[in-house]
Amino acid sequence: KVTGLSGASHDLHSAIDQHEGDFLTSIITADPSIRKTLEVGGAYGLSTLFICGALIGREGAHHTIIDPHQRSVWDGVAINNLQQAGLEFFELVESPSEFALPRIAEATAGEFDLVLIDGWHTFDHTLVDCFYAIRLLRVGGLLVIDDANMRPVSRVIAFLANYPCLTKIGSVRQRPIKWYMRFLATIMSLPPGRRFWAKLLNHALFNRVFERKADMVAFKKVSEDERTWTWHDDRF
How far apart are CA 133 and CA 27, in angstroms? Predict the structure, then answer.
């Protein structure tokens, strides 16, 4: 159960689990330079608590939540949780992400250390969120995407995995990977490598081998996005 700003009690759903929360905590704890963070999709605020909890004690820590329905659909549960926990270094932007992110990026591009994408999960909406998230992040910043096991989200992740400016640094899976699937992925990663199999196999089969049941995926922005205007991925 969770409690909203109205005082009403709600059944807890649409939230990250303990493993995903621990993953968020671990990547923030591992990088003391992470101070300015943002998430798309506040909902009941469990991811918010993990992020802000990991930032406690860091000078200049600030977290931005983009959630147009926080005080309506979600009854302000995320805000209430933060206030009850004594965490005050946050800002709520009650606007759809497709409108809020361009405004924020125009003013503060390259200034964020971590962005979590957990909003509307259609392919196009997730891709738009990630497009602006990459611009918000500094080089060395982290892009974290939740619900990576959903097909539209997993397709965005497969597309982003080919961006020269990004490198995958970790993921969380609910179920352990069976030994023979790990062996198959290892063998298929040898020359000619994953790109060869990506072109040969359909997306679903490729995903079963290399991106099995990932629930949350993290990328690091290793350089500025300097793709040419004709850059493309043959699989898409």
Answer: 17
pLDDT tens profile 174-209: 555 666 767 777 788 888 887 787 778 766 566 666
pLDDT (tens digit per residue) in 58-69: 999 999 999 999
Burial (Cβ within 10 Å: 0-12, 13-18, ≥19) of residue 232: exposed
Q: Which two tokens stand for residue 40?
A: 């798309």
Highest mean pLDDT pick, 4-8, 10-14, 125-129, 206-210: 125-129
Cβ count within 10 A of residue 159: 16
Residue 108's nearest CA partner among 66, 136, 149 is 136
Residues 9 and 75 sit within 8 Å (Cβ to Cβ): no
Question: Beta strands 166-173 and 214-221: pairing type?
Answer: antiparallel
CA distance 109 to 137: 7
Rounded distance, CA 119 to CA 66, Å?
9
The encoded tokens of residue 27 equal 């990547």
> With contact defined as beta carbons under 8 Å apart, do 141 and 105 qualify?
no
